[in-house]
Design brief:
DUF7836, two-stranded antiparallel ribbon, globular
């Protein structure tokens, strides 16, 4: 079985990384960048709409 992943991009510092959707809070909850500490809704860190849809499937 292939494991799902989502790509994230911090809107403040530009840090980009990948993680599994199960390691993230729901898309409407707050999430903080591991690089700069910026806190926003998890959905705002998704790099693409596809990444957001993948996250929503695992909620």
């Amino acid at each position: 079985m292939v494991e799902a992943f989502v790509r994230l991009l911090c809107p403040e510092c530009g840090k980009d990384w990948e993680t599994t959707p199960t390691d993230l809070p729901p898309h409407r909850d707050n999430f903080s960048c591991q690089g700069c500490g910026t806190t926003r809704r998890t959905a705002e860190f998704m790099r693409t709409e596809r990444d957001l849809q993948t996250l929503k499937q695992f909620e």
